[in-house]
User: Which sequence fits this backbone?
């Protein structure tokens, strides 16, 4: 997502807050509940070149998010409760579900203490290869390669200077956009080349940033934690054939269950936008017996989502918008009236 779009969102959140639309439009816009998406939770501020800063919030902002949920009347529940809440003919107070993707160690170090203070249940979606310390967190690899290099060239024809923070940000954005348009094997191969040029091995980041199986087994003993599957290797499933997509889902679940002894009933599609997970993948997840599967398509949950439990929307808590105005807007549902063009369901 470009910085110009983030500036547009920031202005939109401020406008909604200034007009009080997050309160007077909420009865129309807000659904029965909301599933929030988090990635990193860490106290360190981002540096001048931090293209993945949108994926990181501070523990203090996580605390503010939970406080804001309580003030707005949301009940924080586990993911297991979602089907029943959507099917309830007499809905109760709005609910919120907290989900954390990928399996980062900072979720335990910095998020879990905050969640415990609030008595909040939460879900961790585990990518099996990341827990093995061998997976490709390619978006972080790309950031680190651009940070070290002074020029970014790709076989696709991209050639960008990267001598300072501004040029590095532009180079990252151009490389990211170009590679996302390619088959995933091209994306991973091109970023591996950049890693080698920058002097580090592709695949080394997972061991540094992600929870090991020992740590996940310890976490699994916490009754407040639900473990979900986030595939074996974190692929954009829609770019792969059905056999590969099905194996990624099923074997990830089997591996987590085998390592922890806990059932895995829920799935998160990696990346999760319409180019990464679509109707075929929703059907595969349903056929494999997952109770729910979550996307990154933005929106609140409405009763109609009870018929589409394998294409559930989520709302990202974005590290570039750690403000009360952004929180109030997102929890009201008002921005999604425009985003989804008035549709409550975005499941095609």
Assistant:
């Amino acid at each position: 997502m470009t910085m110009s779009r983030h500036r547009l969102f920031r202005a939109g959140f401020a406008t909604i807050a200034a007009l009080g639309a997050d309160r007077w439009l909420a009865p129309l816009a807000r659904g029965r509940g909301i599933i929030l998406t988090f990635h990193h939770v860490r106290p360190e501020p981002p540096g001048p070149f931090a293209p993945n800063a949108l994926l990181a919030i501070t523990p203090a902002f996580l605390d503010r998010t939970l406080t804001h949920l309580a003030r707005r009347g949301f009940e924080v529940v586990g993911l297991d409760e979602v089907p029943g809440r959507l099917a309830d003919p007499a809905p109760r107070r709005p609910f919120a579900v907290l989900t954390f993707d990928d399996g980062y160690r900072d979720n335990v170090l910095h998020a879990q203490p905050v969640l415990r203070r609030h008595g909040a249940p939460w879900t961790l979606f585990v990518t099996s290869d990341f827990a093995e310390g061998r997976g490709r967190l390619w978006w972080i690899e790309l950031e680190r390669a651009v940070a070290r290099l002074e020029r970014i060239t790709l076989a696709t024809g991209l050639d960008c200077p990267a001598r300072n923070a501004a040029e590095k940000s532009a180079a990252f954005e151009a490389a990211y956009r170009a590679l996302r348009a390619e088959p995933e094997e091209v994306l991973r191969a091109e970023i591996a080349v950049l890693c080698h040029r920058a002097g580090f091995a592709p695949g080394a980041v997972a061991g540094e940033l992600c929870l090991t199986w020992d740590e996940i087994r310890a976490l699994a003993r916490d009754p407040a934690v639900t473990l979900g599957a986030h595939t074996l290797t974190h692929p954009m499933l829609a770019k792969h054939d059905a056999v590969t997509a099905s194996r990624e889902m099923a074997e990830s679940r089997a591996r987590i269950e085998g390592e922890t002894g806990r059932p895995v009933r829920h799935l998160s599609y990696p990346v999760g936008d319409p180019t990464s997970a679509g109707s075929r993948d929703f059907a595969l997840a349903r056929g494999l017996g997952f109770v729910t599967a979550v996307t990154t398509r933005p929106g609140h949950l409405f009763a109609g989502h009870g018929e589409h439990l394998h294409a559930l929307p989520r709302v990202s808590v974005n590290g570039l918008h750690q403000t009360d105005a952004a929180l109030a807007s997102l929890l009201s549902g008002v921005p999604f009236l425009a985003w989804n063009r008035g549709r409550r369901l975005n499941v095609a």
